[in-house]
Amino acid sequence: MKQENKPIKQDNSIAGYLDNPANQIRGYYRFYFNGWILPFQKFDNIKIRLNDKKYDNYIIRKMKRPDLNDAFPNISNAENGGFEGVITIGDKEGTYSFVINSYTDSNEEIEIGRKIIINTREVIHDPPSVLTMGTISACNLSCKMCPKHSSSSKIALKNGLMDKKLIEKIISHLESFSPYLKQMSFQDYGEPFLYEDIFTVTNQIANILPECDITLTTNGTLLNEELIDKIVQSKISSVHFSLDAGKESTYQHIRIGGNFNKVVNNIEVLLSKRDSLKMNRPYVGTNFLIMRSNLDEIYDYVQLCESLNVDGIGFVFPFGLFESDKNEILKTLHEEDNEYSKKYLMIKNQLENSSISKKRRYFLPNIEPDALLLDCSFNGKCSFYIDTVGDVYPCCVIAAKGQEKKINLLSMGNIKDHSLTEIWESIKFVDFRERFYKGEYPHKICKNCPKYYGI
Length: 455
Prior knowledge:
Blueprint: E1 15-18, E2 25-27, E3 29-38, E4 47-50, E5 53-54, E6 58-63, H1 67-71, E7 82-90, E8 94-103, E9 109-119, E10 130-133, H2 164-174, E11 183-186, H3 198-208, E12 213-218, H4 225-233, E13 238-242, H5 248-254, H6 260-276, E14 283-287, H7 298-308, E15 312-313, H8 339-352, E16 383-386, E17 391-393, H9 396-404, E18 413-414, H10 420-424, H11 427-437, H12 444-448
Parallel strand pairs: 2-9, 10-11, 10-16, 11-12, 12-13, 13-14, 14-15
Antiparallel strand pairs: 1-3, 3-7, 4-5, 4-8, 6-7, 8-9, 16-17, 17-18
């Protein structure tokens, strides 16, 4: 993450910065902020003022900022100077002056930074920024942890493809979400390249929403020269390959039906083709689901991806909410550390302090719930998910869990009956999003979902 590290004010003892100080924060109820202070021992002196009055309703904590080591090479352990926090204003709407200060040894107040905060409930009605279209739920693999395709899956797949008329209806409604819609993906726990018209769909949407990132997650086994050429020439912004292993033997055990060497070769060919044409897209990343089955291969996976020179190296925890992955989670969110979680924390610490992490292409997620934020990393307060039959949900996890239980869990409506805007503005969906803004759990699944934390 590139930062402009220039302190607003400093003396002989303190330098500090509030990230993006010129940007107004528009939100509701709770507001996130971050920045840095050096020397980092002054962290404990940080105080907040709201409208020029001391304000205590906030949480703040230290965070690692490796970019500070580059900006301040003469300061030992400068990376320890990062901080992040959440200030809770509540439901009193209005415009607020937000200032962060610290104090010198002589008790002189030093300003670290300031922002204007606009607290308005209207943000709950802002169009979504993230949308997933379930164009396909069919897959050519049977990965052991997949809620829809593993041998232990309890979900009966009836509709593998989204009807083309349904897709056309969705596309016809998307323009009303511009320019808010920033990211779209296209799958329903399926393999997107099994959908023969995927390039037609993605290109149509890119033409309607030119600022929207079109992203695909693939197992990579179906790619060939022809498909890779189409990807590079398309308007797809990013392609993420699910690997979940650093070695062929482990890959074969997890991603059943896949071909490790073929996928690795396809990544190499895609990168080579893109670079030879001097294209700036697609962004090429990899994914690794951190499970008991592959915990020992995190280092091998990172080394492999570094050797491939991919743009990003991804990690995430399994949900542990499905029959297929409940035995693969390192630990449940609220239990004590066990041998798996302790081993992961050791690997995480070793990797973050090793030379292999210097390129900073990856972030290893936290294993503990984040008490600071209650914001879903699936952007639950600004996203929605449409399955292959047109039912709309807050996210794919809730949708799949409902399918496993054979109920329409938290379905917000169906696009066959209502427009996307009507569903987004329904009382049920607005209430769901408002609870996120207030730092509440909209549903018990959210409370137990690891995607809620650490990303």
